[in-house]
């Protein structure tokens, strides 16, 4: 543990092979030095700094030593024995009298050559002795050995011997610490209790030795599952190390932090279930098991270790009562939602095959000529029972399951088909903008499949535009710029969607080869907000910025005359919104084209 009560872990997390990293980790230890001569403190610190140590607490008034040991909780103490007033012996005895400091490494510095002093120091519990004046290389060597021994002991005390995962004690401390941080920063997360179904039977069949081997394999598989869940949630750990624990027997726990949506917890839990259901090979035997997962989320289900873990256990019990191989939330509301999503997910998978998707088109209007200047293609799903399901609901689901790739490809194909149909009918259709999802955009073959599609359909690429959200763009910037350049080379126009909701800075925007900014609806709503007097400084700023970058500006979600007027006055190029036209089926949009012609 370090001074903030955080589980230390640092020196312990590195793999056994990574020796250099381990040595480097030792150097992040907090070294406390107690000596009445400031000059000695300076010299010793200089030696240690040369060796790479960085954190020091120096004490030249022996009377204050105990107080600082308690508040700083150093990893090692260098203690001078001969000091006026309170002697080093007194301090050593006081440290050892405190149960939690019983194993704190204390290296005693002594200029005395008589063995009596040394024996006394060792009897009082000194970890090691060092002669004064201090020899630099000896100091560094002793320091390293002492810290390495401490790290090893810490490891034994913190980790489960069988699986190498955190033990219950250490995991509990980790949960405490995470919850404190989460509270401070308003973060949410979840505690998962995972249990192998019918483990007793498996264990009896395998025998104790293979049973242990099986549990080790379970731990490895959970670790893999945890790593694979990185994009959805952070498995609470500072250095990217999964924070998993074996609480005992066949019960495991995982702490997820920064999960913004319960859907992500759902997905992580399902992933664990799926991974565990694959065959294990234990000592030449194929073993098939399932497991159950109980989930408590914070802050809603509790904000302290005990409450949260009790609730995760309750949820685990209900998962078992349902026959296992499933996950349950503690909160009944979340359970209901999770079930609903599961059935929606299944329906979504069938929807593509059943031809339940349609593209609707929403007009974009030129603010000066008031003529039709473009259209946005918006996906619609007609669910056989529920009717139209909003893309706001099913797109995130499709993103999670990966179905979005198939869906996105369908949308692009359908838009191209429609563009061709309009052109064949000699209708003056404007450019059509298609929304591209993050996963679609990040696909390695995104460019090449798009290129193939354009070739196949032979559409004039001036009629196809892509809308990419600001948040997608701010991901891997270099690679995104590369993809954008490829799209531009194909002759496509690029629009930055939901602009203003992300964190783009002017300097990044300048580097993206864009054609258009779409002001997010929330800012348009702002224009007529009470007390604004039909104005909005943000909208003014966005339009000015777009001007400076020579980009077109489109405002989406325009619902009122006053919004439209203000936007035109400020120099916005196009309006899109219910005031001018709702998204409509292709047939209706075709009529609109016919009327305009
Ligand atoms: P978006 O790209 O920001 O699309 C604009 C949304 O605003 C559409 O909602 C549109 O119907 C709605 N809207 C337009 N004018 C107004 C207005 O005046 N007032 C209000 N309140 N809303 C207006 P929709 O169609 O429900 O789509 C929601 C989101 O789903 C879209 O937001 C887009 O992010 C996503 N989406 C839709 N179609 C696709 C698609 O084909 N592919 C992908 N990847 N995402 C899509
Ligand atoms: Ca859009
Ligand atoms: Ca938008």
Describe the structure.
- The protein is of the alpha/beta class.
- The chain folds into 3 domains: 16-158, Response regulator (Rossmann fold, 3-Layer(aba) Sandwich); 168-330, Alpha-Beta Plaits (2-Layer Sandwich); 361-596, EAL domain (TIM Barrel), CATH 3.20.20.
- It is 48% helix and 20% strand.
- It contains 24 helices and 23 strands.
- The chain has an 8-stranded mixed barrel, surrounded by 7 helices. Strands 6, 7, 8, 9, 12 and 13 form a 6-stranded mixed sheet that branches. It has a 5-stranded parallel sheet with strand order 2-1-3-4-5, sandwiched between helices.
- Helix 20 (506-511) links the parallel strand 19 and strand 20 (516-519).
- Helix 9 packs across helix 10.
- The radius of gyration is 32 Å and the shape is elongated.
- The chain starts with 9 loop residues before the first helix and ends with a helix.
- The relative contact order is 0.06.
- One calcium ion (CA) binds at residues 497-498, 518, 556.
Task: Record the SSE blueprint.
Elements: H1 10-13, H2 19-26, E1 30-34, H3 38-50, E2 55-59, H4 65-72, E3 76-80, H5 88-97, E4 106-110, H6 115-123, E5 128-131, H7 136-158, H8 168-185, E6 189-196, H9 199-206, H10 208-228, E7 234-235, E8 244-248, E9 251-257, H11 262-276, E10 280-282, E11 285-287, E12 291-298, H12 305-321, E13 327-329, H13 332-353, E14 357-366, E15 372-383, E16 387-389, H14 391-401, H15 404-424, E17 432-436, H16 438-442, H17 446-457, E18 464-469, H18 470-473, H19 477-489, E19 493-499, H20 506-511, E20 516-519, H21 521-527, H22 537-548, E21 552-555, H23 561-570, E22 574-575, E23 584-585, H24 586-596
Helix pairs in contact: 9-10, 10-11, 13-14, 15-17
Ligand C2E binds at residues 362, 378-379, 390-392, 395, 408, 411, 435-437, 467, 497-498, 521, 556-559, 577-578, 583.
